Amino acid sequence: MQNNSSLPHHVAVVMDGNGRWAKSRGLPRLEGHRRGAAKARQIVEWAADAGIKQISLFAFSTENWSRPKVEVRGLMSMLATLLPREIPAMQQKGVRVRALGDISALPDKAQKAIERACRETAGNGRIELVLCLNYGGQQEVLAGARRMLAWAAGQEDAQAALASIDEKGFREFLWCAGLAPVDLLIRTGGEHRISNFFLWDVAYSELYFSDRYWPDFEQADLQAALDDYARRERRFGKISEQLADKGKP
To answer: Chain-centre distance of CA 234, in angstroms?
Structure first.
């Protein structure tokens, strides 16, 4: 386990490369997703062992609905089937599940599986697993703005209420409210973009890109990302000398 001062509290992962992994082996795309689901289980265990407290996995984006229907149906079926099976293991390992995104648009069986996992693991506290499903960063900000406007409309002076909202206050209207800001965002699969993931929260995140397809991502790769994070200087708009002075007695 790393020193807590150099360890990210919240790690977010774009699990990219399942389809290309399968194609490179002459396998159906859904087989790649099945292997990716198994890898997701592993990375939660590895993250917990490393001391990470929150890990968010980009499991299904708002844009993924445009994929072939057979693939989308397969993904939803996997979610509804595999997630309940994982509950006993998550209970044993102290994993608390939270869902982020517009879950209401998912099929009923998938919704029920998510609700059950969240409900039955609510008392766990070793690590929080955030499943981002039907999630999009732009959609999150838009939904947050609508909630903020609805809140302001119920205040005595709506204009004054809106004027009182700062960045921290606005975040309370977002889906990510209650989560720590993302410290480290990892993307696998060789692409160098964030793909509409946590747009508000990655403002000061450290970004790490791996060429490995998601099913091939191993514990050593996660450790490499954590080691890279530990070497970075997070200045948040300040200069190095200011950070050094802050650490002086």
So the answer is: 20
